[in-house]
Design a protein that fits this description.
It contains 36 helices and 15 strands. With about 950 residues, it is an alpha+beta fold. Strand 14 and strand 15 form a beta hairpin. Helix 2 crosses helix 4 and helix 34 packs antiparallel against helix 35.
Amino acid sequence: MNRWVGIVSLRDTAAPTPVHRIALAIEAARKRTSYSLGGRQVPYERMRAALRRVGQRYAADSQWDRWSYCIDLAGDFFDGGGYVGELPRWLTGELRAVLDADAAPAGRRARQHKPQATRTGSRRSGSSRPPKKAKPAAPARTAPARPDRGGHRPAPEPPPRPYVRVQRQRTVRDVVPAPLTQPPAALVGTFGDVVCAAIRDSVGEWDAGPETVAWLGLAASHRSHLYESGLAETAVTQHVLAMLDKLGRSTLDVILVDAYVADHEPEKVGVQSSEHHRRSAAARRALGAWAAGRGLVRMGAGEAQHPAPSVAESIAKQILGVLSLTDAHDTARRLVENVCAGIDRAPDDVGGADPTTAAQTLFDRDGLTYDYAEQGPDHNKTFVATARLRDGRTAHGSGPSKKAARAAAARALLRGHAQAAAPRGGQAAAPRIAVPPQPYRNAPLRYRDAFADLTAMFELDGRRAAGLLAQALTHASYVYENQEEAAAHRQRDNHLLAHHGSVVLNHLARHTRTRQVLARGLVPDEDEARIHTPANEDTTRLGTALVLSEAVLTGRGETGQRPGTVADAAQAVVATAWRTHGPRLLHRRPALLDDWLAGLQHQHDPVTALNQLMVAFGMTYAFEHELTGPDHLQTFTSTLVLHDARGRVHRWTAQPDRPCSKSDADKATARDVLDILSAPAEDLVDTLLPAERDLLRYLLRAQFDGLGPTNARQRARMAGGGLLGTDLLATGDLDAFGAWAARVGSLLGPADTAVPDTLRELYRQIVHDTRSGPSSLLRRMAADQGTDHTATVRRNAAETVRRAADTRSWGASVRDVVQDWWRDQAPRTGVTVRDDMRQESFLPLAAQLAALRETLGWCGEAAEAANTPIDVELTIQDGTLHTWIGLHGVDARTTCDDFARLLSRTLPCTDCLVDDDHVLLRLHGRPDTESLPPLAEAGVDAYLSGGETRRPPVTALREEPAEEGP
C-alpha cells in the first residue's frame, strides 16, 4: 500500500513550465548565497561560522539541545540552499551580536592582549610581549599623608568628581516557569501518596496537587532503585535525582539560616557560618532518620542489604527539593521545624560538626595553639593533642591521627567553655535578639538615590526593611570610622547580611536551573544537569548591574569599586529582600536579578575545563604561584606547567589585572590557555603574539601526540569547543575545514604534518555522530512519536534516508538507477525522463546513487498518491549532477522539505533543494584529496566515509542517453 495515501499535500496545477526548467532551477539555486537577518543580507559562509560560534557558547553552558540546533542549522546554510525560514528569537540576538563583532572596524575580531609576567625558566621571552604601559597613579587616600618606605610622600588627593545621577533599571518581573515534565507512572506508582501522608503527619493539613504527588514519588527513589527499574537511561536519569538533592540542600540551608537570624546576631560572621554548618549537619541527620523511620526510602535490593545513613539523608533532601520546586516552600519550612526541633544543642552533643573550626572562631583572640605527643608502637600510634589558651586554660584529646586528636581537644575546650558560660540553675542562655537597625538620616546624595532605586526595585516597604537595606549598604570601614553614627542608628557592617545573601542566591540559582532543566525533560546528562554555585565574580556582576559601587558607604581609605565590596553589597541587598518577602523572590523579582539568574553559566570553571582537556590528550599540568604586592593588596600570579605525552614541557604565565587569590589566578591562567587554543577555530592565529603562537604550537602537537580513544561525550565537548576542526566537520563545511587545516599546517610546519591514526578515527566518529548518532537529526526524526501527518512524514523520511545511507550500489550507474526506477514507476503514473548528461563523466559515490534512488522513489510515491504525472531531467554542470523532479499538483514543500533536509545532512556531497512544484537533487563531484595536505585529506576522507570511499566509485556515465519515457 502506498504510504502517501491520505498524507500527500495537493496544490492547484500550475501552468506548464518551459523546456529549460532545469536550467532555471539551477540558476535560481546558484543565486541563493545569503540569508536576510534583521534587514541585512548575510552570506551563508558567515552564517555558518556565526552559528558554530553561538553553538560553542551553548555547549560551554551544557545546553546541548541548543548546540545541536545550531549545528543542524549551520548544515542547512549551504550555497544554493533553500528557504530556511524565520529563526527563533533566542537565536537571532546571539547571531546579531556575533556578526556585529565580526564587522568591527579592524575587519575581524582581535584577541585582547594583556601584559604578561616574565618568570625565570619560562619559555616566554620579554621580546615576545608588547611593552608594558605605565600604570595610572592610584588615587590618594584622605588619611594623613605619611612617608612611605622610600621616603616619598603620596600625591595630593585629586579633586572629587561631580556626582551624576545613576539610572538603574527598576522594572519588576513576574517569573512564569515552564511546566515540569511528568515523571513516568511506571516508576513512581502510588508511592507519592505515601510521602504526602508522612509529610501531613509532620506538618498538619496540606493540599498537594497531582504534580506534587507524582514528583514526591520520584523523590523517594534512590539511584539504585532507579537502575533496577530499567528506566535509568530511557525515562529518568540519575542526574534528575542529583539536581533534586542539590535543590533540597539549598532549601534546607535557607530555611535554617532564616530561623537562625530571626533570633541571633553574632558579633562575627564566622560564628554565624560555623553555627550554620553545625545546624545543617544535624538537620540532615534528623531528616534522614525521619525518612527512614517513615519508610520513605526506595532502594535497590543490593543497597537495601546494608543501607547507609547518607541514603536516607539524600531522600530527605530530594523531598525538600520537590517541595521547593512545586511552590510548597512553606510546607518544607514547617517540615524542617518539626523534624529538626532539637538541633540547637551544644556542639559536643551533636556529632558531625567541625569542632576545630568552631574553636578557632571562638578563641581566635585568645591565642589558641595545639601541642602534640605520640604514644604506642609505629604500627598502632595514638596521638594526644593539647589545646592551650593564653589565659592558661587547656584541654586534651586523643585519636589515631593528629587531625582526630586536634578535633577531640577542640571539642573538649568547647565543652568546658559551654559549662563555664552556662548560667546557674541549669537554665540555657537566651539567644541575643538584635535591636532593629535604622536608616541613616544624613547620608550622601548618591546613597539616597541608590536607596530609593533599590527600594522600588525590590519593592521594600516598612521601617524594618529600610533599616536592613541601610545595613546592606554599610561597609565595615564606614562603621570603623563612624562608630558614633553607626551606634546611633543601631547599624553594623553588612557581613552577616552578605552571608545570608550568599545562601539565598545559591538557592535562587539552583531553583532556577533545576526548573529550567526538568521542564525540558527527565533524561539530562551530566553536563546538562550541572548546577553552578555563584562565585565571587558572579555576585560582583550582579552588584555591578545594580550599580552598588555608587551606593555603598565606605571609609575614607576604602573604595566601593573593589569587587569584594560590590559582591558583599549585592548579597546583602538580596538578603534584605528575602527577609522582607521570603520565597516570593522565586516568582517575583527585579528584572536585573532575573536576568542575572538566567545568565549564570552552569559550566565547568576554566581550571576544570582545562583538566578535561588534559585528560583527553594524555597531558598533565601543575600550577606554581608567586605572591606580590603589599599586605592589603596581595596578588597571586599563577604559572601553568604543562607536560605532554612525549614528556615535553611548556610554561605559561598570565598576569592578573587586579589583586586576586590563588584560585582566581589559576582560573585566569587556564582561561588564557583555552582562549589561545581556540584561535585556529576562530581565525585568530595571525593576531597572536610570538609567545602565544609558541604555546599554541605546543598544544597542537600535544593534541596530535596524546589523542586516544574517545567516547561520545568527549567528542561532543571537542566539537562544542571547536577543537581540532571537529565543529567544521560536524557542519559539513569542507571549505572552512580546509582553511583551518591550512592555518594549522602553516603554524606547525611541514615536519609536523603527519596525521596520527587516532585523529583520523576521531574525525570518522565525529561525522558518524553527526549523521546517525543518538543526538543526530536522523535519530530525532525517527523518534518522533506524534500522530499527525507531519510526524508520519518525518518518520518515513528517517526510514528512507537511513536506507539510503546503508545501501551500497556497487557496479551500478546513474542511468541504471534512473532506468530501474522508470520501469517500476511508469505503469503507475505518467513519467517523462529527459537525459541531458551527454558524454560528460561523473564519478558518483555509492551513497549518492542510493540518494538518487530514494529521492526518485519518494517523489514517485507522492505523485502516485496524488494521481499526477512526474517529470525528471538530468544534466551535469561544473562537475555536479543535477536531477530536476517536477511534481504536478503536489505541494512539494510540505511533502519533501523534511526529507530533503535530512538527506542533505546525512549523505556526503549531496544537496536536495525543494521549491513549490519541484525537487532539485544535486550530487557534487568527489573532492580531490590527492592534492590536499595530510590534515585536510584526513578530514575530507572522514566526511566521505558515508560513501565508503575505500572502494572506487563507479563511472558509468559514458553510455548512450536513455530514451525519454512516455
